[in-house]
Model the fold of this input.
Amino acid sequence: MKVLMIGGTGLLGSAAAQIFVDRGNEVKTLSLPPLPQGAPLPPEMEIVFQDANKLTDDEMVEMMKGYDMFVFATGVDERVEFPAPVYDAYYKYNIAPLERYLPLAKKAGMKGAVVCGSYFAWLAKDRPEMRLTEKHPYIKSRIDQENVCEKYSDANFQVAVLELPYIFGTQPGRKPVWVILIEQLQRFENMPVTMYSKGGTAMLTVRQVGEAMVGAAEHAYAAAEKGEGKFRAYGISCYNYTWEQFLKIVYRAMDGIPDRKIVGVPTWMFKAFGLKMRKDYANRGIQSGIDPVGLADIMDMNLFIPTDDCKELGCTPDDIEKAIFDSIALSMEAFKGTAQLVEMKGE
Done:
């Protein structure tokens, strides 16, 4: 296959690019500078430093011609802060580009696309009674993103969305998203226990995300070649850990504490903290993509996803504990200011 990516130099995009290359595919990416210092990018990948949003439609079609698959490995998640209405920012970075690029990819003769989405969309569909799209702008935006992808899918153009959960692993020179967790855990630094939610989460490593992206592209290409393309949303998970299990690993990585005491707090206590966070956001002119009060109900559940889809896409076993250790080590460097790192970009 010939693959055109947006975000191929990022944490997830670069992992997928290497696997595409290893499997004999040709890869080109549109990316924004600067490149993270020391980032292991495949030398075979062609890098075009270009803001795709500034290309005309005709220029974008010419860029896409001759390529088989389009991979959208960029966007922003719920941890990036924006002023109200926050949905507008999610639309700008996660939805509007696909409204534009997907029909252009079809016009250029491509066979399909792979889009990095969120496991909150999986949860919203799995638990409709929670009415998550009504409470959380970010979750609504991810469902709307999937609806756009489905709209442009047909028998000759298959679009796949990867509903990604917690991801661990690092790209040298790039700031991890887990610095925020380090900051959160500081409030318990002088306490004998850490208070956290009782639930848990799905997770996987960066390499496994890359495998899922490549697997989804291969499946989409094969289906479209047969005229059997359709929209696919894959619930992505290779490991399901409770918060207690996860945080014990984090503390071993962060402070060398072999068995930190983690106490599960009742939901009402988490919601009370959420009320405080609401006021903090309001004072700073920020709207949270995930309502901090409603977040308590999500954090209190085991948001575990079956691993079937990852197996279908060809994800192989990896060392999740090492990936967590690596993420926390680099996050600690970022937190202490001892490393020069490139921030994550959405545009």
